[in-house]
Amino acid sequence: MQTYDAPLRDMRFVLHELFADDGFGGLKAHEDFTPDLLDAVLEEANKVAKDVLLPLNASGDIEGCTYENGVVRTPKGFKQAYDTFREGGWASLASDPEWGGQGLPETVNKLVEEMICATNVSFSLYPGLTHGATTAIEGHASDELKQLYLPKMVSAEWSGTMCLTESHCGTDLGLLRTKAEPQADGSYKITGSKIFISAGDHDLTCNVIHLVLARLPDAPKGVKGISLFLVPKFLPKDDGTPGPSNGVSVAGIEHKMGMKASATCQMNFDDSTGWLVGQPNKGMAAMFTMMNTERVSVGVQGLGINEIAYQSAVAYAKERLQGRSLSGVKNPDGPADPIIVHPDVRRMLMTMRVYAEGCRALGQWCSRALDAEKHSDDPEVKVRATRFVALMTPVVKALFTDFGSDAANLCVQTYGGHGYIREHGVEQFVRDSRIAQIYEGTNGVQALDLVGRKLPADMGANLRPFFHAVSNLLEDMAKVDDKVLKIWTGGMQQAFGALQLSTATIAQKGLKDPEEAGAAATDYLRLMGLVGMGHTFLKAAQIATAKLAQGAGEDEGFYKAKLATAGFFFDRILPQATAMFLAIKSGKRSMMALPAEAF
Amino acid sequence: MQTYDAPLRDMRFVLHELFADDGFGGLKAHEDFTPDLLDAVLEEANKVAKDVLLPLNASGDIEGCTYENGVVRTPKGFKQAYDTFREGGWASLASDPEWGGQGLPETVNKLVEEMICATNVSFSLYPGLTHGATTAIEGHASDELKQLYLPKMVSAEWSGTMCLTESHCGTDLGLLRTKAEPQADGSYKITGSKIFISAGDHDLTCNVIHLVLARLPDAPKGVKGISLFLVPKFLPKDDGTPGPSNGVSVAGIEHKMGMKASATCQMNFDDSTGWLVGQPNKGMAAMFTMMNTERVSVGVQGLGINEIAYQSAVAYAKERLQGRSLSGVKNPDGPADPIIVHPDVRRMLMTMRVYAEGCRALGQWCSRALDAEKHSDDPEVKVRATRFVALMTPVVKALFTDFGSDAANLCVQTYGGHGYIREHGVEQFVRDSRIAQIYEGTNGVQALDLVGRKLPADMGANLRPFFHAVSNLLEDMAKVDDKVLKIWTGGMQQAFGALQLSTATIAQKGLKDPEEAGAAATDYLRLMGLVGMGHTFLKAAQIATAKLAQGAGEDEGFYKAKLATAGFFFDRILPQATAMFLAIKSGKRSMMALPAEAF
């Protein structure tokens, strides 16, 4: 059974307690948002997630989207849910008040996103893509385009897409062929075919605004010749309502492994009218504004599925009776004990739990930097935040989605044979989570972004905020007298040492031979992710220990559980850092030894 | 695209070269099977796999089985393929000649199974379950039952099932409720409902023979009160043809994540006539005969999917053009290089390749022991073989199926977005492979079987044949002068040391507290699997190095590739042993720290 109730206590912990001293807080723009107000937002969001989105998750998977005579339909109930969502203001939570948004901090917005992704990740794409598109328009479009499109998109009356991929090119967008012909009135005629367009068409909104990558007639080859265009499905009339159709058609929808309630469309643009967004031939830069926001959000998809997978597994493990505890009967009145008594079931549950709590904390750290990057008055803080976001974006995207898939699989495993059966609703998590490791740049591409762009930039400047934070905490913790915290600090010191050594190795070898950096990339990203999670768990343990020493009252259970979770991370997950370090050290030799023709 | 051609050269390597000196060979029963004959069997099997089974794999997934008015139908083409398969004698390859089988060694049979599972794992269950059922009947049934049923089942004219699971009990069969009432004529009336019955009903054979676990009226509670019964769908007439129906009905088929062409049935037995197989209340022992064979075969399912995932990924990686090589353009005439040039794509391909070759070798070692256990004239060899099989069965089942799922996922990842789309045929591998980690005992149950039964039995006697083989090879290799082999030997010594230490830790702690053994189980099984695979790679490297030194002629490419694959294993996979060792060492504390109610 798909089981969900937002982990509000943990959300409040990462929101208010965990990063109080990280130097990214105290933003004027957010002064009005009191902790109580933010908590109330989370509580209301939980209701929407549980009551509106979750009931459509399994049914949406079974029914899927349909395509008939050029028209795409979402599953039963989606239109009504979308209206409820939109009318409740949930689509515009973090959008700029200038365009009708509520201007809430990303810290809260990402927690709400987690709830939406947990309960209906297919649904999340419709408002999610719109939000990404508005970001790119806000950042790069002309005032005229902004005035015309942003209010309708921020209110979610119209939706948005990003049209990048063509059948022969995904990662390598330099190969794309869609053409843009300049017109006398300053507009362009866009012609070409795109695939894998999430929310490309549907019945939730009366207009869809496409952001399309295309080539101008005289554009240079490769990625330096790509421009970004805004192409509406229907051209707006003077009164702002959708007018004539614009040569945008749907050739079909994809039959996918999962995410079946999300319409993934093949789009044709046939002399469609579009307007340039940003500078000619600078479309990739404009698109990356959108992609970076989206990448963190895709990470949150992994986290959301991780959390619902965890909760669904826990519910089953407490209820399913099978076998007896190895340490003596726990349920003497029943025919057997609930399977949560078995160590190997605990292993699975604790792993999912550690992944969810660790990702939530690391994601929150990243969100704080996103807010500071946008709103801080202090130029130093702004720079630090920008660097931290640059470094962590690929880590969050890849680590969270890998863990999300792992958690989904652990949930199925906890259910045993019943997990493989559609009616129990948990194999859907495996199918739904799988795409997040691929889209918005595969996790391999994230790793290359990390070692190939983010590390070398500015002589490693992006690393500094992160490395400083970790060093500072480790220094702090070295003075602590608590026996357990000492052991965990030791583990973190080792892992951090491995990360620093790996960084140096990659910088050195990669300079001479970029394939060396490429060969290290995936293990290095995972290693950095583990150190990042370790940092949040050590900080959390420090706080929890202090609170418990003071007497934590009704929060005692929460802090004790936090220590238990941290313990599992340091005992069972962090040791993987050693294996990654050894793999990185071995270099590219064995990875590239076999000639291509010998495969 | 699902791409497959059996890896015949590697199969011949593991069959004839790799284990020539393991002491399990030279069986009189197999004297007539010359290497040439066995190679010819493999070549013919490859044709059946490629030409008969592979073309039905994707279509079978899309169509699935159907259930209507109590009748189950397999997808289009399955009946014809089954007839071809049966008439070619493929169903009876390893069966006893006494019952019409061909008596081929398991070593060859398991390689053929690999091909069948690679090209159509759903199909493999129909003959697979029959083979398992015949094993249990051969081992435990009366002569009369054998005479009546075995010839028809060995010829695959009739099929077989194993009916264990009920909706409230899978792992914990002690809870089962199906009843058996003794009749005056020595038969029994069986009444009850079973779920998850693979090949429970279908249109491939005119009769289905069920092996059903049930309770006699006066049976003791729990697993000690379970008996095994043979219950045919149709009662055979005197002339051996199917006669009147026997109260066996299908209540429905399951809607599963994958394996959609395999009919997984809910079966009702309503006063069905059955006959006892083996002793009253000793049904679990009889069923375990079947389960053990099946567990190794389930491991081979993982290996089969691993291999086709690898080949399908390689084909795509050689063809898909995207980006340029970091070490200079490789395909100057094309718009981009094939993605096989990228280190991170190599990482995925090499990982799949290492998993497939390592599992094939380890599986072959196990098959040799299976043959020796059955046919050796030397009682010492027989004991050694039995112990080796006992130890390795859970390892093969869990390791191969975990790696099979990993490989399937890596294949999808290699395809990027296209991998998520049904038409490309590779997401099916993920869905199909997932069940193998669960059925015939979840992989967590395999790990418990290893630490809870196989290790402690006879003061660790089961470990001896395996540990001796590894020690002997390491001693041998310590004398070798080759620089690379020395490094790999060093890695293996470390991993083997970790395995020995872990064994001692588990034995010690587990004796006092069985939860300690349970907490170590999954990591320990993986560690043992890695050491087992490492042993085969080191042996393979020893052979390849010697062959290349002699001048290997047309086999030069094969042996060089084997060294490259071994190198990747020792550089990139074996280091994980360290993480497992540290996790095992940490014990149960953090795994069991959180009280059940705090989840």
From TrEMBL, chains A, B:
UniProt-listed SUPFAM superfamilies: Acyl-CoA dehydrogenase C-terminal domain-like, Acyl-CoA dehydrogenase NM domain-like
GO molecular-function term, one example from the UniProt record: flavin adenine dinucleotide binding
UniProt organism field: Sphingomonas chungangi
Annotated Acetyl-CoA dehydrogenase-like C-terminal domain residues: 479-595
Cofactors, names only: FAD
Pfam families in alphabetical order: Acyl-CoA_dh_1 (PF00441), Acyl-CoA_dh_C (PF12806), Acyl-CoA_dh_M (PF02770), Acyl-CoA_dh_N (PF02771)
Location of the Acyl-CoA dehydrogenase/oxidase N-terminal domain: 79-157
Boundaries of every Acyl-CoA oxidase/dehydrogenase middle domain copy: 162-271
Domain of life of the source: Bacteria
Family assignment from sequence similarity: Belongs to the acyl-CoA dehydrogenase family.
Name assigned to this protein: 3-methylmercaptopropionyl-CoA dehydrogenase
Acyl-CoA dehydrogenase/oxidase C-terminal domain mapped to chain residues: 281-450
Enzyme Commission code: 1.3.99.41
Keyword field contains Transmembrane: no
Function of the protein: Involved in the assimilation of dimethylsulphoniopropionate (DMSP), an important compound in the fixation of carbon in marine phytoplankton, by mediating the conversion of 3-(methylthio)propanoyl-CoA (MMPA-CoA) to 3-(methylthio)acryloyl-CoA (MTA-CoA).
Catalytic activity: 3-(methylsulfanyl)propanoyl-CoA + oxidized [electron-transfer flavoprotein] + H(+) = 3-(methylsulfanyl)acryloyl-CoA + reduced [electron-transfer flavoprotein]
Keyword Lipid biosynthesis: no
Gene3D superfamilies: Acyl-CoA dehydrogenase/oxidase, N-terminal domain, Butyryl-CoA Dehydrogenase, subunit A, domain 2, Butyryl-CoA Dehydrogenase, subunit A, domain 3
InterPro entries: Acyl-CoA_dh-like_C_dom, Acyl-CoA_Oxase/DH_mid-dom, Acyl-CoA_Oxase/DH_mid-dom_sf, AcylCo_DH-like_C, AcylCo_DH/oxidase_C, AcylCoA_DH/ox_N, AcylCoA_DH/ox_N_sf, AcylCoA_DH/oxidase_NM_dom_sf
Record's keyword terms, sorted: FAD, Flavoprotein, Oxidoreductase
